[in-house]
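User: quick one, sequence for these tokens?
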């Protein structure tokens, strides 16, 4: 081949390669957008206390709306996975991420306070809820629901204290940084014998 022919051949091959690369980039972009969309739907399902199977209903509605508004984009909407299993795994991933962020913030606390409450849910299971409020070295205040622990069996002071300790260990809260406890004043939280055992 002449120099001119070689140059033309190289340009042609470069164009083909670029076209193939762009095709794969486009596929990856669509997949990333579909995954992001499924996380958004899963987050809204969890936030509004809806059934995990509602994701399939949402997808069905999306596809029907897509048929009317943008039928050429229907394939993109079909790639959004919203099965019950997928929604469950997305919510679990969101929970792990939020817990990780909270642990990171707790690790920076110089001082923190804990508010506790024990109540019974709709299944008649006692639940201990811990709220944490802390301040870091930059005086930024963080206040979050730290955790919720199920109390199996009795709800005595020792049971509450055990779950309280487990909650602190899970979140890696340093007891030396805790400067205040707040409870609802129930005897199993504030009784004289309870506080003696807690202080030990």
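Assistant:
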């Amino acid at each position: 081949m002449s120099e001119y022919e070689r140059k033309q051949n190289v340009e042609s091959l470069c164009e083909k390669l670029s076209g193939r690369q762009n095709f794969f980039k486009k596929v990856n972009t669509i997949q990333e957008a579909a995954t992001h969309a499924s996380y958004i739907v899963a987050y809204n399902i969890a936030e509004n206390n809806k059934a995990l199977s509602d994701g399939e209903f949402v997808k069905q509605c999306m596809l029907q709306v897509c048929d009317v508004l943008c039928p050429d984009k229907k394939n993109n909407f079909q790639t959004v996975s919203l099965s019950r299993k997928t929604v469950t795994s997305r919510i679990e991933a969101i929970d792990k991420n939020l817990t990780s962020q909270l642990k990171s913030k707790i690790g920076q606390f110089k001082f923190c306070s804990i508010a506790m409450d024990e109540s019974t849910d709709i299944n008649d299971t006692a639940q201990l809820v811990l709220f944490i409020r802390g301040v870091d070295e930059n005086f930024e205040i963080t206040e979050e629901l730290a955790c919720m622990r199920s109390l199996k069996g009795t709800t005595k002071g020792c049971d509450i204290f055990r779950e309280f300790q487990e909650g602190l260990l899970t979140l890696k809260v340093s007891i030396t940084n805790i400067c205040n406890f707040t409870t609802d004043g129930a005897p199993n939280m504030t009784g004289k014998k309870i506080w003696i055992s807690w202080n030990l």
